[in-house]
Design a protein that fits this description.
This protein is α/β, with parallel strands linked by helices and about 425 residues long. About 15% of the residues lie in helices and about 30% in strands. It is built from eight helices and 34 strands. It has an eight-stranded mixed beta sheet. Strands 5-4-1-6-11-8-12 form a seven-stranded mixed beta sheet, with helices on both faces. A seven-stranded parallel beta sheet has the order 15-18-21-24-27-30-32, with no helix packed on it. Helix 2 (about 65-70) links the parallel strand 4 (about 55-60) and strand 5. It starts with 5 loop residues before the first strand and ends with a strand. About 45% of the residues are buried.
Amino acid sequence: MIRKEMIAMLLAGGQGSRLGVLTSDMAKPAVSYGGKYRIIDFPLSNCINSGIDTVGVLTQYQPLRLNTHIGIGIPWDLDRNIGGVSILPPYEKSDNAEWYTGTANAIYQNLKYMEYYNPEYVLILGGDHIYKMDYEILLEFHKSNNADITIATYPVSWEEASRFGLVITDESKKVLEFEEKPAKPRSNLASMGIYIFSWKILKEALVKLSSQPGCDFGKHVIPYCHENGANIYAFEYNGYWKDVGTLTSYWESNMELIDLVPDFNLYEEFWKIYTKSDVIPPQYIAGNATVSRSIVGEGTEIYGEVYNSVIGSGVVIEEGCVVADSIIMKGTQIGRGSKLYKTIIAENCVIGNNCELGVGEQKENKEHPNIYCNGLVTLGEGTVIPDGVKVGKNTVISGVTTPSDYEGGNWLESGESLIRVDERLA
């Protein structure tokens, strides 16, 4: 009988609606990050660096890009005969087909996968955070406290604490109470959505709560276990951890990578971040080009000026361009003389000649002010912008656009949205 000490279940099915058009056609964990990686690379790399060789990846929303990226797990050394990485989408049963309706429901639907490995412990992970964590240390903490459940927590500022699910502990870090986004927090230890369960406790709770609509770990499973006397402890993590679930936090996290002394180091030998890499030529920076404090991917050609930006692979930035404080994902082409400020451009976009993005006075986005904000310009995958177009701040463009889509043939005012769906303007 197969017996694994600990297996990981990685929840990667979320849409990530707060990332706007970046997740129109892919799950949030598949979004590019740092010019080379995808967000899911970080928990997968943490697993293999922590000695965990059995990982179930639970997918649901727009999974194609994620499935293609993970493949059989070769970049993370997770192509194993026993264990390795397994993609676990919702599947049709003999009596019905059921989508995952909550984080715990998704795990419950894969009980047979977990039973096959008969683990002592199950590590539950989200697929949408940027961090490095040694899960072995988390497991040792779990064992040393004889815990049934260990919740990884992160100390947030007291000003921000009301935005999080919080745990209240005693001096030994045993969890006494939970607070879900309280108006007046009594703790600043926020749950990271990372849990270790002793297998018997997890299985019993999932089966007991299987009829609970939208069954969720934070709202249902952990409170149920707590009420029934489970030993629950909080592990305090003090490294870099970033939820890149909004466009602003995603942009900020990428910009932090190019600090002179970055808080999050992608280049450490002892804790490598692995990813699927295409075989492409090296970057080319022309003699009269300028590149300052930026990450530039392989196969990218720069003939203009790039400042404080993260540039993916296979990007072309033509002569006379200025790109500042921006994220440009792979395969994008930026025409001659164009100027981009605080712009996030998804993969395989085309920006015409002499365009200006991120200019003019700042106005609130009319349709989605909580998504497209903080002066950013956001372009969805495959977007085309014709020559000479000017685009204001807090704007979004997605699809193949023509001059007739713009005011006066060349202007999208701050706060406006221009989204084409099946070649119809929406």
